[in-house]
Amino acid sequence: MWQAGLILISLLVLIEAKNDKLKEIFKWNQIDFAFPDEQTRNASIASGEFKKENNMPLGIEIWKDRVFITVPRWKSGVPSTLNYVKVTDGESPLLHPYPNWETNNVTEEKNYTIGNTFRVRADECGRLWVIDSGLINIVESPKVLSPPKIMIFNLTTDELIREYHLKPSDIKDDSFFANIVVDVSPDKCDEAFAYLPDLGSYCLVVYSYKENESYRINHHYFHFDPLYGDYNISGVNFQWTDGLFGISLSPLNENGFRTMYFHPLSSINEFTVSTEIIQNKTVASESYHEFKLLGSRGPYSQATTSFIDEKSGVMFYTQVNKNGVGCWNSKKFPNDYSINTNTLVVSDDETMVFPNDLKVDRDSNLWVLTDRLPEFIYRNLNKDQINFRVLKAPVSEVIKGTVCDN
Ligand SMILES: *[C@@H]1O[C@H](CO)[C@@H](O)[C@H](O)[C@H]1NC(C)=O
Ligand SMILES: *[C@@H]1O[C@H](CO)[C@@H](O)[C@H](O)[C@H]1NC(C)=O
Ligand SMILES: *[C@@H]1O[C@H](CO)[C@@H](O)[C@H](O)[C@H]1NC(C)=O
Ligand SMILES: *[C@@H]1O[C@H](CO)[C@@H](O)[C@H](O)[C@H]1NC(C)=O
Ligand SMILES: *[C@@H]1O[C@H](CO)[C@@H](O)[C@H](O)[C@H]1NC(C)=O
Ligand SMILES: *[C@@H]1O[C@H](CO)[C@@H](O)[C@H](O)[C@H]1NC(C)=O
Ligand SMILES: *[C@@H]1O[C@H](CO)[C@@H](O)[C@H](O)[C@H]1NC(C)=O
Question: Keyword Secreted on this protein (predicted)?
């Protein structure tokens, strides 16, 4: 009896992963917005512009005291897709549209609108880069508002600096853009590049800020792995075919370029290529062997986004099938990416169901947004429980005592 009890307890410990590293900064049962006034909010609810239950946060970015939070337009009733809160706004803050309500309002068709954004990136030059998929109400009745476009804002003035529509040759029927990674050095702001993984048609679109020009790169490694498209998350079983998704960049190498690490979502492998190849339109699609397999993280290790902390060299990535975050130290194990050198640094079956986005801020803190996405898409969220969380901890504390520690 006693022995059986012990076995049961150790099984429970294995099954009930508990986060004791990341601190909850924000948590919400449901998302609400800072409407100009109560009358507008009431009118917005009455017209169907705002349906609380259809709002789920997804992307996160940190800029000084602002935390950007995207709310994708999967379903109707999302009044604003790009938003921010202040770190000091309390534990369940109202979301403020960025840069304002008008730019996020899709009730009336107009130019200069953000239709649907999943993830954004604030760069070293004080600019916020937004990828707008241009497609709204994806799961109900999809509607194209505009071609996918990049919008770049001045974070000091909140003014739109540039808007760039992807070219027809960048886009295929199944294209879907849900992530944006910016490659820039603070002393060369005009020479920035944006990398846009196309998870739906398995390619990478590269945008050069200096040339104000984009192009599309193909590679076999951008495709999903048919053996790893099966997911079991909080009791929901589903299959996804998402290709190229997570991209993280090394610090600058001696040749002035970075190593780009990348993975498809439905895959457990990580790949690399130098940005010297990616940034050169003429060679990019003709350099098959410059793209390398780095290694495998092991079973159930599908990841959405990844991010490298430049100081420690540690790459963090979401672990959607394990309700947690994984890591690998690119400085310590530059040539060994395997089950042994990767680890699940934090996991929690209650507070970390579907880690959807993560970033490391300029003060070396890891931020993670978790949102129960499978339940939101395939079932319904229970509004009496906490569904969405933003969690945070210093990188040094997250990796302490693990294989990722230096
Ligand atoms: C908004 O709606 C609530 C709930 O129906 C109601 O109590 C409130 O008076 C309304 N406010 C305004 C300004 O119309
Ligand atoms: C969005 O635009 C519509 C039409 O102009 C307007 O009625 C509505 O109040 C706007 N929504 C918000 C939240 O400002
Ligand atoms: C959008 O911009 C185009 C070109 O600048 C213009 O022709 C069109 O009328 C605008 N549409 C709206 C709804 O403002
Ligand atoms: C943002 O605006 C400020 C104030 O006008 C200006 O000094 C700064 O250069 C701008 N930054 C960018 C990236 O455009
Ligand atoms: C960039 O190109 C787009 C067209 O693709 C154009 O509308 C825009 O004005 C250009 N911006 C700059 C700064 O050259
Ligand atoms: C998901 O659950 C199903 C049914 O329990 C099982 O057959 C399958 O192997 C599981 N898949 C993964 C990836 O865990
Ligand atoms: C692209 O690569 C080719 C071949 O190595 C080289 O000749 C060319 O200068 C490169 N272009 C740029 C813009 O660096």
Answer: yes
